[in-house]
Amino acid sequence: MTTPNPEKQPLTALVNREAPLDPAQYEARGGWRGIRRALTMSPDEVIEEVKNSKLRGRGGAGFNTGLKWSFVPKEPAKDRLKYVVANGDEMEPGTFKDRILVEGNPLQLIEGMMITGHAIQADHGIIFLRGEYHLGLERLQKAVIQAREAGWLGKNIQGSGFDFDIHVHPSGGRYICGEETALITALEGRRANPRSKPPFPQVGGLWGAPTVVNNIETFSNVPPILANGNDWYLGLSNCEDGGTKLYGVSGRAKNPGVFELPLGTSLGVILNEYAGGMQDGYKLRAFLPGGASTAFLGAEHENILMDYPSPEKAGSRLGTGLAILLDDRTCPIGMLKNLEHFFAQESCGWCTPCRDGLPWVERLLNVIEDGKGTQEDIDRLHDAARMIGPMGRTFCAHAPGAIAPLSSGLTLFAEDFQRHIRQQRCTFSQGRSAEQAA
Amino acid sequence: MSTADNTAQNAELPSDLVQTFRDMAAHEHHARGASIEALRLVQERFGWISDAHLAQTAQVLGMTPADLDGIATYFNLLFRKPVGKNVIMLCDSVSCWLMGQEQTRDRLCKKLQIKMGETTSDGEFTLLPIVCLGHCDHAPAMLIGKELYGPVRPEDIDAIIDDVRSKNHDHA
Ligand SMILES: Cc1cc2nc3c(=O)[nH]c(=O)nc-3n(C[C@H](O)[C@H](O)[C@H](O)COP(=O)(O)O)c2cc1C
Ligand code: SF4
Ligand code: FES
């Protein structure tokens, strides 16, 4: 990355993965300006500002953040507990952005949660971090202590009368903990099963109290919005929604990684200008635009804008904005099998179509990839996709997310499915790239 | 559960841990809110969560052992059986698979002479699959204890394992 520019890269400009800034250094580099300004505003004014910045949640669903906060009942926290919860579960395969923020600049996340606390009049913050992020956990815990010692957390913050403190919760590890109601259930010390809605967490969340759950990247956007205002934030993006985005690619790119770019940058630019293009000898065949639970798009969509509406128009989702690349030498059915193995294993077991349907899908893909499949097996996969996939048949979006790559893959890779059946074998060696055949 | 392999499993929970759990529980709306973190602390101290420790933790938190066991068995990172001195978690998710995780896995199994899910006979290593470690730009990725590795190619395995082994012996 070139010289970090806080005017253009508000999320990563202060990221230092060797040693994150302490509260004083953070202040010297422009930190704490957001919360200072927020504390001069009323809670409603803060919510209005964030709403108008057109910040949409970066955890996958893309809901307007200020609007979400506005659903929290208005009474102050003194009368009734309220919670601000940061979702740092980050177990979606192919997604590796929040790690950089917690390891590199935890204070910006803390400041974002403080501003949210002021906006919804909550004084409790909890950071839910996946248990495998050992370095992130250590750095976050240290940052919370440092912030408290410097008077940025605790009672009467910087003499303003505002109270807010943060607890860091390391997870016991399960993908489903990232689903916001399951995350709340986990924080209550229960098996992390999702809950039916309503009540929505903003009204009845943790211990029944109003709770706002946002992604770590979402919270990290909030301080710069408050510090610099809406117009500046809207001006950062190349599209209707505001801000920059942590984009990235994994798979056979020359330099896979994460890059902070204007929201609405095309995949082609991300891949070719930032990730160095495809490795020599590999061509882009298809990609999952934003993690394992998004639908495949073919290489003809290489220049699609990675904003919220464009992938949707093409039949997929922006998701977490980190694309996974399928190259022309790797078996797409092998890739689907890997994806469905993950979803089958990580189903929480609450709903029958998800618990029983996904292992069945995995088995069918296995048979086909082994060269023992028939046309009927493909028909069954289509049936399964049709029956498990639609939103609303299960408690949470895990099942629809699991089906997104499958149903798109059945269409996009129809020829590969047919060839596996006709030739009764995988024409890519063991489902791996041709390279490994040698 | 077998007995001889770990003397700590039947011991009383140390009083400092019990006190920590009481403090954590007091900060929660309900004591059970501390359960996952408490189990993590037991495991950090003893390597795994024995029946005896589970029951005592449940008592401090005012839960039944069965209730707490329901939680302990739900989460991937909580171990209800002894594990080796070093737990190796090899990512088997999609970006790592695309980059040749299967070859790395085969080499790792061969080097340790165990299958996924097993512990080496000298008790040094337990090998487990894990979902995406958020290190997909360094695929295939692997975690040994708290140390993150990647990209781990098959030819890197011998050096990594030998290095961890020799560090273990330095500390012993
Ligand atoms: C199965 C499943 C897993 C999820 N995992 C995560 C996650 O790891 N991190 C995250 O921020 N959101 C995750 N989400 C989305 C959350 O439910 C929720 O929409 C999000 O945390 C809201 O924050 P945002 O509005 O800032 O995006 C997941 C959703 C589902 C259905
Ligand atoms: S859809 Fe799957 S993961 Fe979600 S609640 Fe139902 S069984 Fe659990
Ligand atoms: S897929 Fe292996 S680290 Fe992300």
UniProtKB/TrEMBL annotation, chain A:
> Could you tell me the superkingdom of the organism this chain comes from?
Bacteria
The UniProt entry's sequence similarity note says: Belongs to the complex I 51 kDa subunit family.
Domain NADH-ubiquinone oxidoreductase 51kDa subunit iron-sulphur binding positions: 333-378
The protein here is known as: NADH-quinone oxidoreductase subunit NuoF
- The protein's required cofactors: FMN
Q: SUPFAM superfamilies in the record, alphabetically?
A: Nqo1 FMN-binding domain-like, Nqo1 middle domain-like, Nqo1C-terminal domain-like
Q: Which organism is it from?
A: Candidatus Kirkpatrickella diaphorinae
Matching entries from InterPro entries are given as: NADH-UbQ_OxRdtase_51kDa_CS (IPR001949), Nuo51_FMN-bd (IPR011538), Nuo51_FMN-bd_sf (IPR037225), Nuop51_4Fe4S-bd (IPR019575), Nuop51_4Fe4S-bd_sf (IPR037207)
Matches recorded under Pfam families: Complex1_51K, NADH_4Fe-4S
Q: Gene encoding it?
A: nuoF
UniProt entry keywords in alphabetical sequence: 4Fe-4S, Iron, Iron-sulfur, Metal-binding
TrEMBL record, chain B:
Question: What name does this protein carry?
Answer: NADH-quinone oxidoreductase subunit NuoE
Molecular function in Gene Ontology: NADH dehydrogenase (quinone) (non-electrogenic) activity
The UniProt keywords, alphabetically, are: 2Fe-2S, Iron, Iron-sulfur, Metal-binding, Oxidoreductase
Enzyme Commission number(s) from the entry: 1.6.5.9
Q: What family does the Swiss-Prot or TrEMBL record give for this protein?
A: Belongs to the complex I 24 kDa subunit family.
InterPro entries reported in the protein's UniProt record: NuoE-like (IPR002023), NuoE_dom (IPR042128), NuoE_N (IPR041921), Thioredoxin-like_sf (IPR036249)
Coiled-coil parts of chain: none
Report the Pfam families cross-referenced here: 2Fe-2S_thioredx
Tell me its cofactors.
[2Fe-2S] cluster
Keyword Membrane listed: no
